UniProtKB/TrEMBL annotation:
<feature type="compositionally biased region" description="Acidic residues">
    <location>
        <begin position="473"/>
        <end position="484"/>
    </location>
</feature>
<protein>
    <submittedName>
        <fullName>Uncharacterized protein</fullName>
    </submittedName>
</protein>
<feature type="compositionally biased region" description="Pro residues">
    <location>
        <begin position="7"/>
        <end position="16"/>
    </location>
</feature>
<feature type="region of interest" description="Disordered">
    <location>
        <begin position="1"/>
        <end position="29"/>
    </location>
</feature>
<feature type="region of interest" description="Disordered">
    <location>
        <begin position="456"/>
        <end position="485"/>
    </location>
</feature>
Length: 605
């Protein structure tokens, strides 16, 4: 009975010694590194039957930085083959120029061409190798290569340490599913979290928001605010295996600065201060649901919890009002997003910052009266008018045509809001710009309504009677508006205790005049200079109005500080969920009034 036997590798061919005696001696006056290279270059194991030489090391592997290894080897050592003479100069013993020449001899081919001793070009090249200046250049090159290799190694070690620090700062912790009943947030944040669960590419973990093919909300700034909200409400946590670039990590230069010994990269790595990672970029981190037995089953637990809380039939009157406001804002934001998209499609520049408030105000005004399909139509008409204007006036600045589109949109929205009998076409969803996940969730998932055919009045008519609360009023805002604004509340309390001791008029004046200092103090890109100017002006204007009406400087400062709540957009990506523009404005106003306040934890900027 035949049996299968595993195949065996063919035996390695036996190597025979070199047929001619060869000697390798250091060249007089050659630098040690050239001698070492030459000896390794000519070091062989033996000769195959076909005359090929088996070398111990490939020429390029000895030193990849050397482009012509045979010249470097000739500059370091003298190779002589006994019994052979140069065909050109007749010198014996023969000095082969390269490995190739020696292999030809092993295959029975007599030496041809010049040898090392009579090749003038080779001698000139060898002289360059032996020259002290060339030696210095080689040493500098080696030192630079070693420095680069050490830096690359240190960077890899530092990134690994930062990754560990990020994982330690955001460990994967799962809580019992029963604790979900304690997790409450505003309607807006809960709807965003549910949209995240329904429309994310995966849920264990949830991919970074900037990787979604469909945005979470119509506005990038709004998306950041929503992510900040669900993080503060503890609906989602940052996944420890998020990409390292999603965290704000100390740079390698900062690591070097912290080292006590900088004599070498090894010493730097031994003495640098371990990294600390606290902040992160909201759009770049991965998320996970921290409630349940595993991150694979936890999303379904949270989905069920949020869906029950977002059922309009169980909402209080306040939460139903929040749901209405959310739907209205979605109509307005989707309209703005569509207008911006059409403007770009017509190769027109984006809306200028000083005209965007008019665009936003017009869109939000018409969103109270019309459905999204009709506001889409108004945006399309206005963008078309801008494109037609650009064609009629090719020499006019294109930015003026975009402004013309904003003017047309503003006028059409004003008429559509004032005249309910004005019949408008109802646009369908544009496949080039799908609706955001939050829009689809609110209209299709919560209201069971067509997103582009349902207006605010339609939603009001379809909402069931609100649930009547008995006993203590339900906290409709949840942790989103209490935990998230704890810093602002601390500021108000501290200001309340000190406001009688300061000159409110002088503080408000300094607050407005210190606009440049405020810009320098803000972390990252907290907004455009114009939008920040409007925020500062708005806060001091409200404060002065209260002071003029009541003569109470204490109340004026408190109201001005509280007005910062109207600016919830994140103050720059580097701080992620840590701080909003309003909190920075309030902190700045307080600092002018009576110096930086004392918190249990320092503010994250």
């Amino acid at each position: 009975m035949a049996t299968d036997t595993p195949p065996t590798d063919p035996p390695a061919p036996e190597l025979r010694p070199l047929p001619h005696e060869m000697t390798v001696t250091p060249r007089p006056g050659a630098q040690p590194e050239l001698v070492a290279f030459g000896e390794r270059y000519w070091d062989l194991l033996g000769v195959n039957d076909d005359g090929r030489i088996a070398w111990k090391q490939g020429a390029r592997r000895i030193d990849p930085a050397i482009s012509q290894p045979h010249i470097t080897a000739a500059a370091g050592v003298v190779v002589e083959v006994a019994g052979q003479a140069c065909a050109d100069c007749g010198l014996t013993p023969w000095q082969p120029r390269s490995r190739t020449a020696l292999e030809e001899l092993c295959r029975g081919i007599a030496p041809a061409g010049r040898c090392v001793a009579c090749d003038e070009d080779l001698q000139i090249a060898m002289a360059r190798q032996i020259d002290p200046a060339a030696q210095a250049r080689r040493a500098a090159t080696r030192q630079q290569a070693a420095q680069h290799a050490g830096q690359s190694r240190a960077r890899a070690v530092w990134r690994a340490a930062c990754q560990v620090a990020a994982q330690e700062a955001h460990p994967l912790v799962l809580h019992p599913a029963s604790t979900l009943s304690e997790r409450q947030a505003s309607v807006e944040v809960e709807a965003a979290a549910l949209a995240c669960l329904r429309y994310a590419l995966a849920t264990a973990p949830i991919p970074a928001l900037d990787q979604w093919p469909r945005p979470l909300s119509p506005s990038p700034d709004w998306t950041l605010a929503l992510a900040r909200g669900w993080y503060q409400a503890r609906l989602f946590n940052v996944h420890p295996d998020s990409d390292l670039d999603a965290f704000v990590t100390p740079t390698l230069d900062e690591a070097v600065e912290s080292a006590t010994d900088r004599s070498s990269w090894e010493a730097v790595m031994d003495t640098w201060t371990p990294p600390v990672v606290n902040s992160f970029y909201l759009p770049r981190v991965n998320w996970y649901v921290p409630y349940g037995s595993s991150i694979g089953t936890a999303p379904q637990q949270l989905d069920t919890h949020l869906l029950a809380r977002l059922d309009p039939a169980v909402m209080t009157q306040a939460r139903q009002a929040d749901l209405l406001s959310l739907a209205e804002r979605l109509i307005g934001e989707e309209t703005i997003r569509y207008f911006d998209f059409l403007i770009a499609e017509h190769n027109l520049p984006p809306v200028l910052d000083n005209h965007r408030p008019r665009l936003v105000e017009a869109a939000m005004q018409v969103a109270r009266h019309r459905c999204l399909g009709q506001t889409y139509f108004l945006a399309w008409q206005a963008a078309r008018d801008a494109a037609v204007g650009a064609q009629k006036h090719p020499r006019a600045p294109k930015g003026n045509m975009t402004t013309h589109g904003v003017n047309q949109f503003e006028e059409k929205c004003r008429r559509a809001s004032a005249d309910p009998n004005w019949r408008l076409s109802e646009w369908n969803e544009d496949s080039r710009l799908p609706l955001s996940a939050l829009t689809r969730l609110v209209f299709l998932g919560l209201l069971g309504a067509e997103p582009l055919r349902t207006s605010r009045s339609d939603i009001e008519a379809m909402l069931p009677p609100p649930r009547e609360t008995s006993g203590p009023a339900e906290d409709d805002s949840g942790p989103d508006e209490t935990d998230g604004d704890s810093m602002l509340i601390d500021l108000l309390r501290a200001l309340d205790a000190r406001a009688d001791e300061v000159d409110a008029d002088a503080v408000l004046t300094a607050f407005q005049d210190g606009y440049a200092d405020l810009l320098a103090a803000l972390p990252g890109q907290a907004g455009t200079p114009d939008s920040l100017r409007l925020a500062v002006d708005g806060m001091q204007r409200v404060g002065r109005a209260v002071q003029e009406a009541t003569g109470d400087g204490r109340a004026a400062l408190l109201v001005a500080c509280a007005a910062a709540h109207a600016y919830p957009n994140p103050a720059g990506d580097p701080h992620g969920a840590a701080v909003t523009v309003g909190e920075v404005l309030a902190y700045y106003l307080f600092s002018i009034a009576s110096g930086p306040p004392a918190f249990e934890e320092p503010p994250p900027f």
